[in-house]
Amino acid sequence: MQGFSGDLESRFRTGMSIDAAMAVATDVLEPVGFTSFIYDYTPVPVSHEGDLITPSLMALHNVPRDMQDLWCKGGYYQLDPVQEAALAVSRPFLWSHKGVQSTVMQHVLRARHDPVISYLLDTRMTCGVTVPIRLAGGDLATFTAIRADPEPGFEAEARQLIAEIGDLGHLLHDSVYAGFDAGIRTCPYVHLTSRERQCLRLAAAGLTAKQVAREIGRAVPTATLHLNAATRKLGARNRFHAIALAAHYRLLEPEH
C-alpha cells in the first residue's frame, strides 16, 4: 500500500459542504483500499452523567442504509467503542474486529459494546482508522475510514497510513467547520429557548431574579418562570445546579 498522491491541503477549502469534503476524502482513500467513511461532530461529547451524546452532525458515505438511524436514533452511538476510544486518546488509531485489535481499543472494549460489534461483523465493516479531532471549546469530531472485507495484511498496511489519514481528517474538519450554523454548534442533548438561556446567563453573572427581569424588560414572575423552566429542562435540583449544568452543555455562551 502506497501513501497518498498529491497535495492534500490543496484539495480542501474553507467553507466546503460536508458532502463535498467527504467526496474529496473518498477520492483520496478509496485508491488505498478504504471503502466507507464517517464524519461526526458534537459540541459537547458527553452528558453530565458521562454518557456519549448523539452528534449534531453525522455524515456517512457508502455504509448500510440503516446505520445512521441505528446510531442516531437507536442508541448505537452510545454503545460504540470507537467513540469511547476517541474520547480517551488524541491520536489517530486503528481498530479491527477480526484481526489483531489495537491497544487503544483493547483498553475500551467491554460486553456492552457487543451490539455494535455484531453489526459491524454482520456488515463486514471490520477494520478502520479513526481520527479524534478536539477543539479548544471541548467540541469533538471524528473522521473514520473503514475497510469492508479486509484481506489478510490490510491492517499492517493501514498502520503505515495512520498519520496521513490523521492529517486528512483534520483538513476535512477544518474545511467544513466554518460553515456550521448555530443549530449544529448547539448541544442537542438539552434544548433551552433563547430567553431561558439569556436568563440563565444573567443569573450566572450574579443577578437576582428581580435584576434579571429588569435586564430582559419583563416582570419578575416572567423572569422566574424562564429560570424555573430552564432548571426543570436541565433536570437540576436548584438554580445553582442549573447554572452548573448549563455551563457543562455550553448553554451560557453567547448564541451564534
UniProtKB/TrEMBL annotation:
InterPro entries: Sig_transdc_resp-reg_C-effctor, TF_LuxR_autoind-bd_dom, TF_LuxR_autoind-bd_dom_sf, Tscrpt_reg_LuxR_C, WH-like_DNA-bd_sf. The keyword Transcription applies. The keyword Chaperone does not apply. Pfam families: Autoind_bind (PF03472), GerE (PF00196). Residues 185-250 form the HTH luxR-type domain. It comes from the Bacteria. Coiled coil: none annotated. One of its GO terms (biological process) is regulation of DNA-templated transcription. One of its GO terms (molecular function) is DNA binding. Keywords: DNA-binding, Transcription, Transcription regulation. This is LuxR family transcriptional regulator. It comes from Mesorhizobium muleiense. The lineage of its organism: Bacteria, Pseudomonadati, Pseudomonadota, Alphaproteobacteria, Hyphomicrobiales.
